[in-house]
Amino acid sequence: MLQSVGHKNYLLKKTISIFTVLILSNYEKFILTNLIVLFISITAFAQEIAPYIKVTESSESINQISEKVIDVLKNDNFTILGTYNPSNKKTLKVIAFTRNDLKNTVIKITDRGALAATFKIGLVEENGKTTVSYTNPDYILRAYLGDNYNTFVSTFKKFSADLKSSLSAVG
Question: Which residues pair with 164 in a beta bridge?
Fold first, then answer.
């Protein structure tokens, strides 16, 4: 009798052990499935907002287009912070800029807010054509400001619309 009680306890422990493994396996599958769905959702959302917006492609030189862009931005109350040629290549140029309303808004957000104050226009000259693009305000502002984005969304939308309107004069 003792042997059979011990055997029953052994079987019971084994059954519980197997049942626990099955439950954990299903639980782990559930968690893994949810993580995969979450990752796919985030990836799909991220793909909806492009980091750069193409403005135009022109047969003008990079210097001519650069001057036009700077003039247009200055005339529409944007502040040019500077220009540079990445890797010292004359076929690449970046124009860094901001605007007071944007700058005064993003600095209210202490965690990374100031990083969202500077935007860039990129120029690439290749095969006799110059491509003009700029960093997407919606993308950059959401990335740096996170949950704070919605607090100041009206300022950001105005900035974005004004920038698009200004650059439409270039192409």
Answer: none
Nearest to 132 by CA among 118, 140, 122, 142: 122
The one-letter amino acid at 136: N
| Helix axis angle, 153-167 to 137-145, nearest 10° | 150
Instruction: Read off φ and ψ for residue 107, nearest 5 degrees.
Output: -70, -10
Note the pTM of the prediction, 2 decimals: 0.71
Report the largest interatomic distance among the alpha carbons of the chain, rounded to a whole angstrom: 99
Task: Dump pLDDT digits (tens) for 109-157.
Answer: 888 888 899 999 999 999 999 999 999 999 998 888 888 888 888 899 9
Judged against a pLDDT cut of 70, whether residue 40 lies above it is answered with no
Cα–Cα dist 74/42, whole Å: 37
Query: 124: closest CA among 153, 165, 81, 95?
Result: 95
